[in-house]
Amino acid sequence: MFEKIKRILIGKPLPNEAEKTEKYGVLWGLPILSSDAISSVAYAGQEILYVLLPAIGFLAFKEISVVTTAIIILLFILMLSYRQTIENYPNGGGAFIVAKDNLGVLAGIVAGAALSVDYILTVAVSISSGVDQIVTALEFLKPYKIALCLFLVLFLMIGNLRGIRESSRIFGIPAYAFMFSILALIIGGYIKLKMGYVPPEPKINYSSHPVTLVLLLKAFASGCTALTGIEAVSNAVPNFKDPATKHAKTVLLLLSLIILVLFGGTTLLATHYHIVPTEGAMLVLMAQEIFGKSFMYYIVAATTFIILVFAANTAFSGFPMLVAVMAKEEFVPRQLSLKGDKLSYSNGIIILALVSALLIVAFNGNVTALIGLYAVGVFISFTLSQSGMFVRWLKNKGSHWHIKAFINGFGALTTFVVVIIIAITKFKEGAWIVVLLIPLLVFAMIKVKLHYIAVADQLRVTPEDKELLDVEHNIYRNRVIVPIESLNKASIRALRFAKTISDNVIAFNVSINEEQAKKLQERYKMLNCSIPLVIRYSPYRKILEPLLEYIKSEEYNYQKGDMITVIIPKFTVQRWWQKILHNHTWLFIEKELLKHKHIVVSVMPLQLKDDDVVLKKKNKPLWKILEED
Protein backbone atom coordinates (compact mmCIF):
# COMPACT_ATOMS: atom_id res chain seq x y z
CA MET A 1 0.00 0.00 0.00
CA PHE A 2 2.76 2.45 0.98
CA GLU A 3 4.65 1.72 -2.22
CA LYS A 4 1.53 2.37 -4.35
CA ILE A 5 0.85 5.72 -2.63
CA LYS A 6 4.52 6.65 -3.02
CA ARG A 7 4.43 5.94 -6.76
CA ILE A 8 1.24 8.00 -7.21
CA LEU A 9 2.71 11.00 -5.38
CA ILE A 10 6.33 10.85 -6.54
CA GLY A 11 6.25 8.83 -9.76
CA LYS A 12 8.47 6.09 -11.12
CA PRO A 13 12.11 5.97 -9.98
CA LEU A 14 14.84 7.26 -12.28
CA PRO A 15 18.10 5.44 -13.08
CA ASN A 16 21.46 7.07 -12.31
CA GLU A 17 21.98 7.66 -16.03
CA ALA A 18 19.03 10.09 -16.05
CA GLU A 19 20.86 12.56 -13.79
CA LYS A 20 22.06 14.71 -16.70
CA THR A 21 18.49 15.26 -17.88
CA GLU A 22 17.47 16.40 -14.38
CA LYS A 23 19.53 19.61 -14.56
CA TYR A 24 18.22 23.03 -15.57
CA GLY A 25 19.44 25.94 -17.67
CA VAL A 26 18.95 29.69 -17.23
CA LEU A 27 15.24 29.67 -18.21
CA TRP A 28 14.15 27.34 -15.38
CA GLY A 29 17.09 27.86 -13.04
CA LEU A 30 16.20 31.56 -12.64
CA PRO A 31 12.70 31.10 -11.18
CA ILE A 32 13.65 28.06 -9.08
CA LEU A 33 16.71 29.59 -7.41
CA SER A 34 15.58 33.20 -7.32
CA SER A 35 12.01 32.83 -6.09
CA ASP A 36 13.11 33.35 -2.46
CA ALA A 37 14.91 36.62 -3.19
CA ILE A 38 12.23 37.85 -5.62
CA SER A 39 9.43 37.04 -3.20
CA SER A 40 11.06 39.28 -0.58
CA VAL A 41 9.56 42.14 -2.58
CA ALA A 42 6.22 41.17 -1.00
CA TYR A 43 7.32 41.73 2.59
CA ALA A 44 10.70 43.53 2.78
CA GLY A 45 9.19 46.94 2.02
CA GLN A 46 6.33 46.51 4.47
CA GLU A 47 8.75 45.38 7.19
CA ILE A 48 10.66 48.66 6.74
CA LEU A 49 7.41 50.59 7.14
CA TYR A 50 6.49 48.54 10.24
CA VAL A 51 9.60 49.99 11.89
CA LEU A 52 9.38 53.56 10.58
CA LEU A 53 5.65 54.38 10.75
CA PRO A 54 5.12 54.05 14.55
CA ALA A 55 8.26 56.14 15.23
CA ILE A 56 8.14 58.99 12.70
CA GLY A 57 4.67 58.73 11.16
CA PHE A 58 4.28 60.34 7.74
CA LEU A 59 8.04 60.93 7.41
CA ALA A 60 8.39 57.15 6.98
CA PHE A 61 7.36 57.48 3.32
CA LYS A 62 10.35 59.74 2.73
CA GLU A 63 12.93 57.72 4.65
CA ILE A 64 11.98 54.37 3.10
CA SER A 65 13.74 55.41 -0.12
CA VAL A 66 17.00 56.00 1.82
CA VAL A 67 16.82 52.54 3.41
CA THR A 68 15.92 50.92 0.06
CA THR A 69 18.90 52.54 -1.68
CA ALA A 70 21.29 51.18 0.98
CA ILE A 71 19.84 47.66 0.58
CA ILE A 72 20.17 47.76 -3.23
CA ILE A 73 23.82 48.85 -2.96
CA LEU A 74 24.45 45.90 -0.63
CA LEU A 75 22.66 43.64 -3.14
CA PHE A 76 25.13 44.46 -5.90
CA ILE A 77 28.11 44.03 -3.57
CA LEU A 78 26.85 40.52 -2.81
CA MET A 79 26.16 39.79 -6.47
CA LEU A 80 29.75 40.63 -7.48
CA SER A 81 31.11 38.63 -4.55
CA TYR A 82 29.06 35.50 -5.22
CA ARG A 83 29.92 35.52 -8.93
CA GLN A 84 33.51 34.90 -7.82
CA THR A 85 32.39 32.13 -5.46
CA ILE A 86 30.55 30.39 -8.32
CA GLU A 87 33.59 30.62 -10.57
CA ASN A 88 35.99 29.18 -7.99
CA TYR A 89 33.69 26.61 -6.32
CA PRO A 90 31.56 25.04 -9.07
CA ASN A 91 30.80 21.88 -7.06
CA GLY A 92 28.29 23.58 -4.75
CA GLY A 93 28.27 23.86 -0.98
CA GLY A 94 28.60 27.66 -1.11
CA ALA A 95 29.59 29.31 2.15
CA PHE A 96 30.27 25.99 3.90
CA ILE A 97 32.95 24.82 1.45
CA VAL A 98 34.46 28.30 0.93
CA ALA A 99 34.79 28.96 4.68
CA LYS A 100 36.06 25.44 5.43
CA ASP A 101 38.71 25.51 2.70
CA ASN A 102 40.05 28.98 3.48
CA LEU A 103 39.23 29.77 7.11
CA GLY A 104 39.34 26.31 8.70
CA VAL A 105 36.94 23.61 9.84
CA LEU A 106 35.23 25.63 12.57
CA ALA A 107 34.42 28.52 10.24
CA GLY A 108 32.98 26.06 7.71
CA ILE A 109 30.77 24.41 10.32
CA VAL A 110 29.49 27.81 11.53
CA ALA A 111 28.69 28.83 7.95
CA GLY A 112 26.90 25.53 7.29
CA ALA A 113 24.89 25.78 10.51
CA ALA A 114 23.94 29.42 9.86
CA LEU A 115 22.87 28.73 6.29
CA SER A 116 20.87 25.66 7.35
CA VAL A 117 18.94 27.81 9.85
CA ASP A 118 18.31 30.39 7.13
CA TYR A 119 16.91 27.80 4.72
CA ILE A 120 14.54 26.43 7.35
CA LEU A 121 13.32 29.95 8.18
CA THR A 122 12.93 30.70 4.47
CA VAL A 123 10.26 28.03 4.24
CA ALA A 124 8.49 29.15 7.43
CA VAL A 125 8.57 32.88 6.55
CA SER A 126 7.69 32.50 2.85
CA ILE A 127 4.70 30.25 3.42
CA SER A 128 3.40 32.25 6.41
CA SER A 129 3.74 35.48 4.42
CA GLY A 130 2.08 33.94 1.36
CA VAL A 131 -0.91 32.83 3.39
CA ASP A 132 -1.06 36.34 4.92
CA GLN A 133 -1.48 37.79 1.42
CA ILE A 134 -4.36 35.51 0.51
CA VAL A 135 -6.25 35.87 3.81
CA THR A 136 -6.00 39.65 3.35
CA ALA A 137 -7.86 39.29 0.06
CA LEU A 138 -10.14 36.42 1.20
CA GLU A 139 -10.90 37.10 4.88
CA PHE A 140 -13.09 34.02 5.34
CA LEU A 141 -9.88 31.91 5.22
CA LYS A 142 -8.31 33.54 8.33
CA PRO A 143 -9.42 30.79 10.79
CA TYR A 144 -7.67 28.21 8.60
CA LYS A 145 -4.34 30.04 8.29
CA ILE A 146 -2.12 27.44 10.04
CA ALA A 147 -3.83 24.52 8.32
CA LEU A 148 -3.21 26.21 4.95
CA CYS A 149 0.45 26.74 5.85
CA LEU A 150 0.96 23.08 6.73
CA PHE A 151 -0.82 21.90 3.60
CA LEU A 152 1.46 24.06 1.46
CA VAL A 153 4.61 22.73 3.17
CA LEU A 154 3.41 19.20 2.36
CA PHE A 155 2.67 20.22 -1.25
CA LEU A 156 6.17 21.67 -1.71
CA MET A 157 7.77 18.60 -0.16
CA ILE A 158 5.97 16.25 -2.55
CA GLY A 159 6.68 18.50 -5.53
CA ASN A 160 10.41 18.45 -4.81
CA LEU A 161 10.47 14.72 -4.14
CA ARG A 162 9.31 14.32 -7.74
CA GLY A 163 12.75 15.48 -8.94
CA ILE A 164 14.54 18.61 -10.17
CA ARG A 165 13.10 18.68 -13.68
CA GLU A 166 9.47 18.23 -12.68
CA SER A 167 9.70 20.68 -9.76
CA SER A 168 11.27 23.34 -12.02
CA ARG A 169 8.21 23.20 -14.29
CA ILE A 170 5.75 23.18 -11.37
CA PHE A 171 7.34 26.11 -9.52
CA GLY A 172 8.93 28.08 -12.38
CA ILE A 173 5.90 29.42 -14.25
CA PRO A 174 4.30 31.13 -11.17
CA ALA A 175 7.60 32.97 -10.52
CA TYR A 176 7.50 34.51 -13.97
CA ALA A 177 3.81 35.35 -13.50
CA PHE A 178 4.67 37.24 -10.28
CA MET A 179 7.47 39.20 -11.98
CA PHE A 180 5.16 40.37 -14.76
CA SER A 181 2.25 41.19 -12.42
CA ILE A 182 4.45 43.34 -10.12
CA LEU A 183 6.02 45.02 -13.15
CA ALA A 184 2.47 45.80 -14.34
CA LEU A 185 1.67 47.14 -10.84
CA ILE A 186 4.69 49.50 -10.91
CA ILE A 187 3.99 50.73 -14.46
CA GLY A 188 0.25 51.09 -13.77
CA GLY A 189 0.92 52.95 -10.53
CA TYR A 190 3.17 55.56 -12.13
CA ILE A 191 0.86 56.00 -15.13
CA LYS A 192 -2.04 56.66 -12.73
CA LEU A 193 0.02 59.29 -10.88
CA LYS A 194 1.04 60.96 -14.17
CA MET A 195 -2.63 61.15 -15.14
CA GLY A 196 -3.24 63.34 -12.07
CA TYR A 197 -4.41 60.81 -9.48
CA VAL A 198 -3.94 62.02 -5.89
CA PRO A 199 -3.76 59.17 -3.34
CA PRO A 200 -5.88 59.63 -0.19
CA GLU A 201 -4.14 60.80 2.99
CA PRO A 202 -3.26 57.90 5.31
CA LYS A 203 -4.69 57.83 8.84
CA ILE A 204 -1.36 58.37 10.59
CA ASN A 205 0.24 61.16 12.61
CA TYR A 206 2.60 63.75 11.18
CA SER A 207 5.16 62.93 13.85
CA SER A 208 7.76 65.46 14.92
CA HIS A 209 10.09 62.78 16.32
CA PRO A 210 13.64 63.02 14.94
CA VAL A 211 14.92 60.52 12.37
CA THR A 212 17.78 58.82 14.22
CA LEU A 213 20.56 56.60 12.92
CA VAL A 214 19.42 53.82 15.26
CA LEU A 215 15.91 53.94 13.75
CA LEU A 216 17.25 53.80 10.17
CA LEU A 217 19.55 50.91 11.07
CA LYS A 218 16.62 49.00 12.57
CA ALA A 219 14.57 49.58 9.40
CA PHE A 220 17.59 48.55 7.30
CA ALA A 221 17.89 45.32 9.29
CA SER A 222 14.22 44.52 8.59
CA GLY A 223 14.56 45.32 4.89
CA CYS A 224 17.67 43.15 4.48
CA THR A 225 15.32 40.16 4.26
CA ALA A 226 15.13 41.18 0.58
CA LEU A 227 18.65 39.77 0.18
CA THR A 228 18.02 36.29 1.55
CA GLY A 229 18.22 33.74 -1.23
CA ILE A 230 21.10 35.43 -3.08
CA GLU A 231 23.45 32.65 -1.94
CA ALA A 232 21.18 29.86 -3.23
CA VAL A 233 22.63 30.08 -6.76
CA SER A 234 26.20 29.42 -5.54
CA ASN A 235 25.01 26.47 -3.43
CA ALA A 236 23.29 24.78 -6.35
CA VAL A 237 25.79 25.19 -9.21
CA PRO A 238 25.94 21.38 -9.81
CA ASN A 239 22.21 21.44 -10.62
CA PHE A 240 22.83 23.50 -13.78
CA LYS A 241 23.46 22.10 -17.24
CA ASP A 242 26.95 22.49 -18.68
CA PRO A 243 28.56 24.96 -18.71
CA ALA A 244 27.20 25.10 -15.15
CA THR A 245 29.37 28.01 -13.98
CA LYS A 246 28.33 30.25 -16.86
CA HIS A 247 24.63 29.48 -16.38
CA ALA A 248 24.82 30.07 -12.63
CA LYS A 249 26.56 33.46 -13.06
CA THR A 250 23.95 34.52 -15.62
CA VAL A 251 21.12 33.58 -13.25
CA LEU A 252 22.75 35.53 -10.40
CA LEU A 253 23.08 38.66 -12.56
CA LEU A 254 19.48 38.46 -13.80
CA LEU A 255 18.28 37.90 -10.24
CA SER A 256 20.02 41.06 -9.02
CA LEU A 257 18.54 43.16 -11.84
CA ILE A 258 15.04 41.81 -11.16
CA ILE A 259 15.26 42.63 -7.43
CA LEU A 260 16.52 46.12 -8.30
CA VAL A 261 13.48 46.79 -10.48
CA LEU A 262 10.80 45.07 -8.38
CA PHE A 263 11.96 45.92 -4.85
CA GLY A 264 13.09 49.42 -5.76
CA GLY A 265 9.94 50.08 -7.80
CA THR A 266 7.41 48.92 -5.21
CA THR A 267 9.04 50.70 -2.24
CA LEU A 268 9.26 53.97 -4.19
CA LEU A 269 5.65 53.51 -5.27
CA ALA A 270 4.70 53.12 -1.60
CA THR A 271 6.10 56.61 -0.93
CA HIS A 272 3.58 58.09 -3.38
CA TYR A 273 0.55 55.97 -2.47
CA HIS A 274 1.23 56.12 1.30
CA ILE A 275 0.38 52.48 1.93
CA VAL A 276 0.00 51.57 5.63
CA PRO A 277 0.80 47.81 5.92
CA THR A 278 -0.84 47.49 9.36
CA GLU A 279 -4.15 47.43 7.47
CA GLY A 280 -3.11 44.43 5.37
CA ALA A 281 -0.38 43.13 3.06
CA MET A 282 1.38 46.06 1.33
CA LEU A 283 1.34 44.77 -2.25
CA VAL A 284 -2.31 43.74 -2.06
CA LEU A 285 -3.31 47.14 -0.62
CA MET A 286 -1.26 48.88 -3.30
CA ALA A 287 -2.91 46.82 -6.04
CA GLN A 288 -6.34 47.77 -4.65
CA GLU A 289 -5.39 51.46 -4.70
CA ILE A 290 -4.10 51.29 -8.28
CA PHE A 291 -6.44 48.79 -9.96
CA GLY A 292 -9.46 48.76 -7.62
CA LYS A 293 -11.14 45.39 -7.13
CA SER A 294 -10.56 44.61 -10.81
CA PHE A 295 -9.09 41.57 -12.55
CA MET A 296 -5.52 42.87 -12.10
CA TYR A 297 -6.06 43.29 -8.35
CA TYR A 298 -6.81 39.59 -8.01
CA ILE A 299 -3.92 38.70 -10.34
CA VAL A 300 -1.46 40.60 -8.11
CA ALA A 301 -2.96 39.06 -4.94
CA ALA A 302 -2.90 35.55 -6.43
CA THR A 303 0.63 35.71 -7.90
CA THR A 304 1.99 37.29 -4.72
CA PHE A 305 0.47 34.50 -2.67
CA ILE A 306 1.84 31.85 -5.04
CA ILE A 307 5.38 33.30 -5.28
CA LEU A 308 5.62 33.60 -1.49
CA VAL A 309 4.64 29.97 -1.13
CA PHE A 310 6.90 28.86 -3.96
CA ALA A 311 9.75 31.04 -2.64
CA ALA A 312 10.19 28.29 -0.11
CA ASN A 313 11.18 26.16 -3.09
CA THR A 314 14.54 27.94 -3.19
CA ALA A 315 15.21 26.42 0.23
CA PHE A 316 14.00 23.02 -1.01
CA SER A 317 16.62 23.31 -3.76
CA GLY A 318 19.45 24.73 -1.63
CA PHE A 319 19.08 23.01 1.75
CA PRO A 320 19.24 19.37 0.52
CA MET A 321 22.29 20.21 -1.62
CA LEU A 322 24.01 21.96 1.30
CA VAL A 323 23.41 19.16 3.82
CA ALA A 324 24.40 16.56 1.19
CA VAL A 325 27.79 18.26 0.86
CA MET A 326 28.07 18.44 4.67
CA ALA A 327 27.05 14.78 4.95
CA LYS A 328 29.83 13.76 2.56
CA GLU A 329 32.19 15.67 4.85
CA GLU A 330 30.54 13.74 7.76
CA PHE A 331 29.33 16.75 9.78
CA VAL A 332 25.69 15.63 9.54
CA PRO A 333 24.20 12.11 9.19
CA ARG A 334 25.45 10.33 6.07
CA GLN A 335 21.90 9.44 5.05
CA LEU A 336 21.48 13.07 3.94
CA SER A 337 23.94 12.49 1.09
CA LEU A 338 21.85 9.67 -0.43
CA LYS A 339 19.67 10.34 -3.47
CA GLY A 340 16.11 9.07 -3.58
CA ASP A 341 14.02 7.53 -6.35
CA LYS A 342 13.93 10.74 -8.39
CA LEU A 343 17.65 11.52 -7.97
CA SER A 344 16.93 14.30 -5.47
CA TYR A 345 18.28 14.38 -1.91
CA SER A 346 14.96 13.21 -0.50
CA ASN A 347 16.04 12.89 3.15
CA GLY A 348 17.08 16.54 3.22
CA ILE A 349 13.77 17.57 1.60
CA ILE A 350 11.73 15.68 4.21
CA ILE A 351 13.71 17.06 7.18
CA LEU A 352 13.37 20.63 5.86
CA ALA A 353 9.60 20.22 5.56
CA LEU A 354 9.20 18.75 9.07
CA VAL A 355 11.29 21.37 10.89
CA SER A 356 9.69 24.25 8.96
CA ALA A 357 6.20 22.95 9.80
CA LEU A 358 7.12 22.83 13.49
CA LEU A 359 8.31 26.46 13.34
CA ILE A 360 5.09 27.61 11.68
CA VAL A 361 3.03 25.97 14.42
CA ALA A 362 5.30 27.27 17.21
CA PHE A 363 5.10 30.89 15.97
CA ASN A 364 1.46 30.62 14.87
CA GLY A 365 2.44 31.67 11.34
CA ASN A 366 3.37 35.19 12.54
CA VAL A 367 5.62 36.67 9.81
CA THR A 368 6.90 39.58 11.92
CA ALA A 369 7.89 37.21 14.75
CA LEU A 370 9.69 34.88 12.33
CA ILE A 371 11.39 37.77 10.50
CA GLY A 372 13.27 38.54 13.72
CA LEU A 373 15.04 35.19 13.36
CA TYR A 374 15.39 35.31 9.61
CA ALA A 375 18.33 37.36 8.39
CA VAL A 376 20.91 36.64 11.12
CA GLY A 377 21.91 33.21 9.80
CA VAL A 378 22.18 34.18 6.15
CA PHE A 379 24.34 37.25 6.84
CA ILE A 380 26.68 35.19 9.04
CA SER A 381 27.13 32.84 6.07
CA PHE A 382 27.58 35.85 3.74
CA THR A 383 30.36 37.19 5.98
CA LEU A 384 32.21 33.88 6.29
CA SER A 385 31.89 33.15 2.57
CA GLN A 386 33.28 36.53 1.52
CA SER A 387 36.02 36.38 4.17
CA GLY A 388 37.00 32.96 2.85
CA MET A 389 37.22 34.24 -0.72
CA PHE A 390 39.28 37.24 0.47
CA VAL A 391 41.79 34.92 2.19
CA ARG A 392 41.85 32.71 -0.93
CA TRP A 393 42.94 35.64 -3.12
CA LEU A 394 45.63 36.65 -0.62
CA LYS A 395 47.04 33.09 -0.62
CA ASN A 396 46.71 32.12 -4.29
CA LYS A 397 46.74 35.52 -5.98
CA GLY A 398 46.34 35.01 -9.75
CA SER A 399 45.21 37.44 -12.46
CA HIS A 400 43.56 40.65 -11.22
CA TRP A 401 43.63 39.28 -7.68
CA HIS A 402 43.81 42.78 -6.17
CA ILE A 403 40.41 43.71 -7.62
CA LYS A 404 38.88 40.36 -6.68
CA ALA A 405 40.27 40.58 -3.14
CA PHE A 406 38.89 44.11 -2.79
CA ILE A 407 35.40 43.01 -3.89
CA ASN A 408 35.29 40.06 -1.47
CA GLY A 409 36.99 41.98 1.33
CA PHE A 410 34.57 44.90 1.03
CA GLY A 411 31.68 42.43 0.84
CA ALA A 412 32.88 40.66 4.01
CA LEU A 413 33.22 43.95 5.89
CA THR A 414 29.80 45.17 4.77
CA THR A 415 27.96 41.98 5.63
CA PHE A 416 29.75 41.75 9.00
CA VAL A 417 28.45 45.22 9.86
CA VAL A 418 24.96 44.11 8.80
CA VAL A 419 25.20 41.00 11.05
CA ILE A 420 25.99 43.24 14.03
CA ILE A 421 23.14 45.62 13.17
CA ILE A 422 20.61 42.80 12.77
CA ALA A 423 21.76 40.94 15.89
CA ILE A 424 21.45 44.09 18.03
CA THR A 425 18.26 45.56 16.60
CA LYS A 426 16.44 42.24 16.31
CA PHE A 427 17.81 40.55 19.44
CA LYS A 428 14.70 41.00 21.57
CA GLU A 429 12.40 40.18 18.63
CA GLY A 430 13.72 36.64 18.34
CA ALA A 431 17.25 36.93 16.96
CA TRP A 432 18.48 35.63 20.33
CA ILE A 433 17.05 32.23 19.39
CA VAL A 434 19.31 32.02 16.32
CA VAL A 435 22.31 33.42 18.22
CA LEU A 436 21.83 30.53 20.68
CA LEU A 437 20.83 27.90 18.11
CA ILE A 438 23.83 28.23 15.79
CA PRO A 439 26.43 27.38 18.51
CA LEU A 440 24.29 24.38 19.51
CA LEU A 441 24.20 23.18 15.90
CA VAL A 442 27.96 23.70 15.59
CA PHE A 443 28.51 21.61 18.75
CA ALA A 444 26.23 18.86 17.39
CA MET A 445 28.05 18.82 14.03
CA ILE A 446 31.42 18.49 15.74
CA LYS A 447 30.12 15.57 17.81
CA VAL A 448 28.82 13.89 14.66
CA LYS A 449 32.16 14.30 12.88
CA LEU A 450 34.14 12.98 15.84
CA HIS A 451 31.81 9.99 16.05
CA TYR A 452 32.39 9.12 12.39
CA ILE A 453 36.16 9.48 12.89
CA ALA A 454 36.02 7.10 15.87
CA VAL A 455 33.90 4.58 13.93
CA ALA A 456 36.20 4.67 10.91
CA ASP A 457 39.23 4.21 13.15
CA GLN A 458 37.76 1.01 14.59
CA LEU A 459 36.52 -0.39 11.26
CA ARG A 460 39.60 0.38 9.17
CA VAL A 461 41.14 -2.71 7.50
CA THR A 462 44.91 -3.04 7.11
CA PRO A 463 46.95 -5.67 5.15
CA GLU A 464 47.59 -7.50 8.44
CA ASP A 465 43.86 -8.10 8.86
CA LYS A 466 43.85 -10.73 6.08
CA GLU A 467 44.91 -13.23 8.74
CA LEU A 468 41.45 -12.87 10.27
CA LEU A 469 40.06 -14.96 7.39
CA ASP A 470 42.49 -17.87 7.81
CA VAL A 471 40.31 -20.15 9.95
CA GLU A 472 39.98 -23.95 9.89
CA HIS A 473 36.37 -25.07 9.70
CA ASN A 474 34.01 -27.99 9.28
CA ILE A 475 32.04 -28.32 6.10
CA TYR A 476 28.31 -27.53 6.33
CA ARG A 477 25.77 -28.38 3.66
CA ASN A 478 24.43 -24.90 3.30
CA ARG A 479 25.43 -22.01 1.06
CA VAL A 480 26.36 -18.63 2.52
CA ILE A 481 26.10 -15.09 1.14
CA VAL A 482 27.58 -12.13 2.98
CA PRO A 483 26.23 -8.76 1.71
CA ILE A 484 28.92 -6.11 2.21
CA GLU A 485 28.50 -2.37 1.66
CA SER A 486 32.23 -1.74 2.03
CA LEU A 487 35.32 -3.54 3.26
CA ASN A 488 35.71 -2.96 6.99
CA LYS A 489 36.19 -4.96 10.16
CA ALA A 490 32.47 -5.63 10.52
CA SER A 491 32.31 -7.23 7.05
CA ILE A 492 35.60 -9.11 7.66
CA ARG A 493 34.13 -10.55 10.85
CA ALA A 494 31.01 -11.70 9.00
CA LEU A 495 33.10 -13.34 6.25
CA ARG A 496 35.24 -15.05 8.87
CA PHE A 497 32.17 -16.50 10.55
CA ALA A 498 30.81 -17.59 7.16
CA LYS A 499 33.92 -19.75 6.56
CA THR A 500 33.26 -21.66 9.78
CA ILE A 501 29.84 -22.86 8.62
CA SER A 502 30.37 -23.48 4.90
CA ASP A 503 32.99 -23.70 2.18
CA ASN A 504 30.50 -22.27 -0.31
CA VAL A 505 30.66 -18.59 0.61
CA ILE A 506 30.06 -15.54 -1.58
CA ALA A 507 30.76 -11.90 -0.67
CA PHE A 508 28.04 -9.85 -2.39
CA ASN A 509 28.04 -6.10 -3.01
CA VAL A 510 25.50 -3.75 -4.60
CA SER A 511 27.15 -0.62 -6.07
CA ILE A 512 25.33 2.48 -7.24
CA ASN A 513 28.26 3.71 -9.33
CA GLU A 514 31.27 2.20 -11.10
CA GLU A 515 33.83 4.17 -9.06
CA GLN A 516 32.50 2.68 -5.83
CA ALA A 517 32.68 -0.84 -7.30
CA LYS A 518 36.23 -0.34 -8.57
CA LYS A 519 37.47 0.87 -5.18
CA LEU A 520 35.91 -2.10 -3.41
CA GLN A 521 37.47 -4.58 -5.87
CA GLU A 522 40.92 -3.07 -5.34
CA ARG A 523 40.62 -3.18 -1.55
CA TYR A 524 39.24 -6.73 -1.61
CA LYS A 525 42.21 -7.95 -3.66
CA MET A 526 44.46 -6.66 -0.89
CA LEU A 527 43.17 -9.44 1.40
CA ASN A 528 44.11 -12.29 -0.98
CA CYS A 529 40.86 -13.86 0.15
CA SER A 530 39.62 -17.21 -1.22
CA ILE A 531 35.99 -16.04 -0.94
CA PRO A 532 34.85 -14.71 -4.33
CA LEU A 533 33.41 -11.18 -4.49
CA VAL A 534 30.35 -10.63 -6.67
CA ILE A 535 29.37 -7.02 -7.47
CA ARG A 536 26.05 -6.00 -8.97
CA TYR A 537 25.29 -2.53 -10.31
CA SER A 538 21.96 -1.04 -9.23
CA PRO A 539 20.89 1.91 -11.45
CA TYR A 540 17.81 2.55 -9.28
CA ARG A 541 19.79 2.39 -6.00
CA LYS A 542 17.93 -0.72 -4.84
CA ILE A 543 19.74 -3.06 -2.43
CA LEU A 544 17.55 -6.10 -1.89
CA GLU A 545 16.32 -6.75 -5.44
CA PRO A 546 19.82 -7.36 -6.94
CA LEU A 547 20.57 -9.88 -4.17
CA LEU A 548 17.38 -11.86 -4.79
CA GLU A 549 17.93 -11.75 -8.56
CA TYR A 550 21.44 -13.12 -8.08
CA ILE A 551 20.17 -16.03 -5.95
CA LYS A 552 17.66 -16.92 -8.70
CA SER A 553 20.20 -16.54 -11.52
CA GLU A 554 21.93 -19.37 -13.40
CA GLU A 555 25.27 -17.97 -12.26
CA TYR A 556 24.49 -18.84 -8.64
CA ASN A 557 22.98 -22.19 -9.69
CA TYR A 558 20.53 -22.48 -6.82
CA GLN A 559 19.05 -25.98 -6.56
CA LYS A 560 15.74 -26.87 -4.96
CA GLY A 561 16.34 -27.94 -1.36
CA ASP A 562 19.44 -25.77 -0.92
CA MET A 563 19.49 -23.66 2.24
CA ILE A 564 21.01 -20.21 1.90
CA THR A 565 22.36 -18.37 4.92
CA VAL A 566 22.66 -14.60 4.53
CA ILE A 567 25.02 -13.16 7.14
CA ILE A 568 24.53 -9.41 7.57
CA PRO A 569 27.51 -7.47 9.00
CA LYS A 570 26.47 -4.86 11.53
CA PHE A 571 28.29 -2.64 13.98
CA THR A 572 26.69 -1.21 17.10
CA VAL A 573 27.48 2.16 18.70
CA GLN A 574 27.38 3.11 22.36
CA ARG A 575 24.99 6.06 22.53
CA TRP A 576 21.39 6.53 21.41
CA TRP A 577 22.01 9.66 19.32
CA GLN A 578 24.83 7.95 17.43
CA LYS A 579 22.38 5.35 16.11
CA ILE A 580 20.59 8.10 14.17
CA LEU A 581 23.80 8.79 12.25
CA HIS A 582 24.01 5.39 10.60
CA ASN A 583 21.95 3.53 8.03
CA HIS A 584 19.75 0.72 9.32
CA THR A 585 19.35 -0.96 5.94
CA TRP A 586 19.98 -4.35 7.55
CA LEU A 587 16.57 -4.18 9.29
CA PHE A 588 14.81 -3.85 5.95
CA ILE A 589 16.96 -6.57 4.33
CA GLU A 590 16.34 -8.96 7.22
CA LYS A 591 12.59 -8.36 7.15
CA GLU A 592 12.30 -8.98 3.40
CA LEU A 593 14.64 -12.01 3.25
CA LEU A 594 12.77 -13.79 6.03
CA LYS A 595 9.75 -13.94 3.71
CA HIS A 596 11.63 -16.65 1.73
CA LYS A 597 11.54 -20.08 3.42
CA HIS A 598 14.84 -21.26 1.92
CA ILE A 599 16.80 -18.27 3.30
CA VAL A 600 18.22 -18.04 6.81
CA VAL A 601 19.25 -14.59 8.06
CA SER A 602 21.97 -14.08 10.63
CA VAL A 603 23.20 -10.71 11.94
CA MET A 604 26.89 -10.57 12.88
CA PRO A 605 27.41 -7.65 15.29
CA LEU A 606 30.62 -5.77 16.02
CA GLN A 607 30.43 -3.68 19.20
CA LEU A 608 32.35 -0.42 18.84
CA LYS A 609 33.95 1.45 21.71
CA ASP A 610 32.81 4.85 22.91
CA ASP A 611 34.07 7.77 20.78
CA ASP A 612 35.93 9.37 23.68
CA VAL A 613 37.98 6.20 24.29
CA VAL A 614 39.08 6.01 20.64
CA LEU A 615 39.80 9.72 20.28
CA LYS A 616 41.87 9.85 23.50
CA LYS A 617 44.20 7.17 22.07
CA LYS A 618 45.12 9.57 19.26
CA ASN A 619 46.61 11.85 21.95
CA LYS A 620 45.90 14.98 19.89
CA PRO A 621 43.66 18.06 20.40
CA LEU A 622 40.18 17.65 18.92
CA TRP A 623 40.71 20.47 16.42
CA LYS A 624 43.90 18.81 15.19
CA ILE A 625 41.96 15.58 14.63
CA LEU A 626 39.30 17.48 12.66
CA GLU A 627 41.88 19.26 10.52
CA GLU A 628 43.86 16.08 9.73
CA ASP A 629 40.88 13.92 8.80
Automatic annotation (TrEMBL):
Gene3D superfamilies: Amino acid/polyamine transporter I. The keyword Transmembrane helix applies. The chain crosses the membrane at residues 64-82, 103-124, 144-161, 173-191, 211-230, 251-275, 295-322, 343-363, 369-393, 405-424, 430-450. It is a multi-pass membrane protein. Coiled coil: none annotated. Keywords: Membrane, Transmembrane, Transmembrane helix. InterPro entries: AA/rel_permease1 (IPR002293), APC_K+_Transporter (IPR053153). Pfam families: AA_permease_2 (PF13520). It comes from the Bacteria. It is found in: Membrane. This is Amino acid/polyamine/organocation transporter, APC superfamily. It comes from Caldicellulosiruptor bescii (Anaerocellum thermophilum).
